[in-house]
Automatic annotation (TrEMBL):
InterPro entries: DUF305_CopM-like, Ferritin-like. Residues 53-200 form the DUF305 domain. Pfam families: DUF305. It comes from the Bacteria. Residues 11-47 are annotated as: Disordered. Residues 11-38 have a biased composition (Low complexity). This is DUF305 domain-containing protein. The lineage of its organism: Bacteria, Bacillati, Actinomycetota, Actinomycetes, Propionibacteriales. It comes from Tessaracoccus antarcticus.
Amino acid sequence: MLAISLAGCAANPPAAPEATTSVPAATATSTASVAQPTSDPPSVVDAEHNDADVTFAQMMTIHHQGALEMSELAAQQAASSEVKEVAATIEGAQLPEIQLMQSWLSAWGEPVEPGGHAGMDHGGMDMNGKSQEQVMAELQEGTGTEFDNQFLSSMIAHHEGAVAMAEEELRDGNNPQALELAQRIIDAQQIEIHQMQELLQNL
């Protein structure tokens, strides 16, 4: 019986190395195939990219920063709780996306901001022909329903600009993570545009 027991004990240890050797392969597979969460930049960035991906990440970062400025002001000055809720939703979605895109640019060895003057006012250049500075100045002067109306009108136009930029990335981009984010932006912001249009009609 002692011999049988020893044989049984000797048969168990080889199982551990087999489990250990399979982990790296499984980890590599899941890293490549599972979508990265928006709340946390991915630890592994796909190195494959082209100029369109770089431009998308740089310009959308600036564009999102413009939306954050407007949303932070709405949190303080909006009269409607629904408008404040929209602003909070925008801020909650776009801040992690900024961090995500900046992590790509860093991994690609690209500057966070585009060279020259290309991105200086892209944060708001598509808001009915007004610059980010013009819109922020108008919002800072607004109060009550006037503020809510101006915020919603400007943010709808701002979102439409983001959708157009994301569609351009889908057409010209190459990086899988950037393409995935572009589609997410289109899906989310089209829904938000519809919500803001309804709020605007009911002010």
